[in-house]
Amino acid sequence: MTADDRLIVALDVPNALQGLQMAEEIGDAVSFYKVGLGMLTGGGLALANELKQEHGKRIFLDMKLFDIGATVEAAVRGLAQYDLDFLTVHGDPHVVEAAKAGAAGSGLKILAVTVLTSLDRDDLDSCLIKGGAIPDLVSERAGRAFDAGADGVISSPQEASLIRALPESEGRLIVTPGVRPAGADLGDQKRVATPANAVADGADHIVVGRPVWQAASPRDAAQAIVTELNSAQAQQPNR
Known about the structure:
The protein is an alpha/beta fold. The chain contains ten helices and eight strands. The protein is globular, with a radius of gyration of 17 Å. The mean pLDDT is about 90.
């Protein structure tokens, strides 16, 4: 089976050595990997660079940067030298603008986080986030991030269709964590959908972690998701 880069596998394992072993076990079934903040102190940046340069994989560096503009711009400029593919920052316009300035001249795409997929309305209330339905907040943050220059956004699959309907989303990416194959444990995710539903609703890429790397056969688990994505595409030939 040919790898499908709509599937991004999150290597949320403890360190770079385990991440490399997982990628080697999965082999050519997956072409795109996410390396997140949790692995940063375990050699995550070195793993990202090795998978990109030596194994030909596409890399999504999930750092969710948030700081004053000058700091974000400097951090992104440093990361852009690694020739990676995607980088996340928080979706506040000043952060997005700074990140785009730091990525200038590189192929690094800046993805803006809208509302984390592990949060629900009660969580947002406890964080003093303004009232309103989460889909409305996600849509508003996505639109503002696009206006600030974001190449794409991160949202739960439940909001993908709303974002895709925004005029500003034309030509932009929607990447959805919180994707779980039918019957999989939800873990700490609260706003989820299946791979097929996420793609049908407008997602360009889905991010799947534990249902792949915790599976008895991570390679088989990844291939099953690709099969589901292909089936969904066959049912929507004009998408």
